[in-house]
Amino acid sequence: MSLPDTPFQHLDARFRRMVIDTAQVDRLYHGCRWAEGPVWLPATQELIWSDIPNNRLMRWSEGAGAGVFRQPSNFNNGNTLDREGRIVGCLHGGRAVVRTEHDGSITTLASHWQGKRLNSPNDVVVKSDGSIWFTDPDYGINSDYEGYQAESEIGACNVYRIDGDSGDISIVSSDLERPNGLAFSTDESRLYIADTGLTHRAGGPHHIRVFDVVDGVTLKGGEVFATIDPGLADGFRLDAHGNIWTSAGDGVHCYAPDGTLLGKILIPEVVSNVVFGGPRGNRLFITATTSLYAVYLAVNGAVRP
């Protein structure tokens, strides 16, 4: 498998100011079954990501390379950091959202809705008020490949919010077929959520929708922001200018805040997710099927309020 000599595909003049044409995509690790959920840890200058079918979390740092961070991981999928730098993760196997404390212990934040078990939490973000927002499709209970096969107790795939003070859980969206990746706009006034229903239904959604955040606790709207072709918006993150860098079938697609597709980073595997990291936040780490990739950009990742 070879990387393209020119990984950047320019579709809009604005994209030229966002990438470094002489930069190359680095393949940092190979050997996953389905690489997902990258999160950058500034305190330790390392990347943590999920290898879901292999039931493990991986780690990578400059110089030390890659190794196992946690195994078994209870089929951990998406990851993010909370306001205290702790990893918040989505467990397919545990059907829960959990937090890894600084001493390594694990705290369960959400596992049930009105007495019924969650499906298989997929991706998660933390808002500046400490609330935690996560998607709960059924990918982890569809088979024993990325979790444990089971029937949905809730009977729906929802998006939830965990209150940062009380820990109360509420549904913020119930009209997506398979809610997947999600991210706040740079000012947290909007929430982008992917719907990857195409995985379950021919002609199903493969787009990102955008919702207005009302009073910091509920959502309204939900118009389609961008349709991903080829592939799906499995996971995405924003840069400091509000542009969205999302997974796709042929690499990473970059969308302007107005919904214009600006350009692509071509990757020879199906991409699942991305995160900005590195000492200056200008390195985009890319999880793609069996591998971890990275590329330096001319933009930096968004800094939370």
UniProtKB/TrEMBL annotation:
<dbReference type="InterPro" id="IPR051262">
    <property type="entry name" value="SMP-30/CGR1_Lactonase"/>
</dbReference>
<dbReference type="GO" id="GO:0046872">
    <property type="term" value="F:metal ion binding"/>
</dbReference>
<dbReference type="Pfam" id="PF08450">
    <property type="entry name" value="SGL"/>
</dbReference>
<protein>
    <submittedName>
        <fullName>Gluconolactonase</fullName>
    </submittedName>
</protein>
<dbReference type="InterPro" id="IPR013658">
    <property type="entry name" value="SGL"/>
</dbReference>
<feature type="binding site">
    <location>
        <position position="36"/>
    </location>
    <ligand>
        <name>a divalent metal cation</name>
    </ligand>
</feature>
<dbReference type="InterPro" id="IPR005511">
    <property type="entry name" value="SMP-30"/>
</dbReference>
<feature type="domain" description="SMP-30/Gluconolactonase/LRE-like region">
    <location>
        <begin position="34"/>
        <end position="289"/>
    </location>
</feature>
<dbReference type="InterPro" id="IPR011042">
    <property type="entry name" value="6-blade_b-propeller_TolB-like"/>
</dbReference>
<feature type="active site" description="Proton donor/acceptor">
    <location>
        <position position="234"/>
    </location>
</feature>
<keyword id="KW-0479">Metal-binding</keyword>
<feature type="binding site">
    <location>
        <position position="180"/>
    </location>
    <ligand>
        <name>a divalent metal cation</name>
    </ligand>
</feature>
<dbReference type="GO" id="GO:0016787">
    <property type="term" value="F:hydrolase activity"/>
</dbReference>
<feature type="binding site">
    <location>
        <position position="234"/>
    </location>
    <ligand>
        <name>a divalent metal cation</name>
    </ligand>
</feature>
<keyword id="KW-0862">Zinc</keyword>
<feature type="binding site">
    <location>
        <position position="122"/>
    </location>
    <ligand>
        <name>substrate</name>
    </ligand>
</feature>
<keyword id="KW-0378">Hydrolase</keyword>
